[in-house]
Amino acid sequence: MTPEEFVELLRPHAERVFDETGIPVEIMLAQAALETGWLGKTVRDKRTGQDSLNLFNIKGEGPTGSVTVDVVEYSKGRKVWQEAQFRAYNDYAESFSDYASL
Predict the structure, then answer these.
(1) CB count in 10 Å sphere of residue 50
(2) What is the pLDDT of residues 33-64, one digit of tens each?
């Protein structure tokens, strides 16, 4: 997906959240772009391949549960692979709304 397509797809959701919260549209879109690589590397369940629709890589349980992903964390300066749960959403609008509620 090109950056232009990314913005065209997600801008309406970011604008709605801006209207509700005042969080700048550009900030939300920039963070979502960094977290997902312009939607090229979204968080997917390692067993089922289910896309979480999680634009901000928020851990925990979302409206539709969670997806399980292997992630790198650091403990006492050492790199450690762990399973982590990331929130799953019904759509991108929910992902933006949840991000804004944090």
Answers:
(1) 16
(2) 999 999 999 999 999 999 999 999 999 999 99
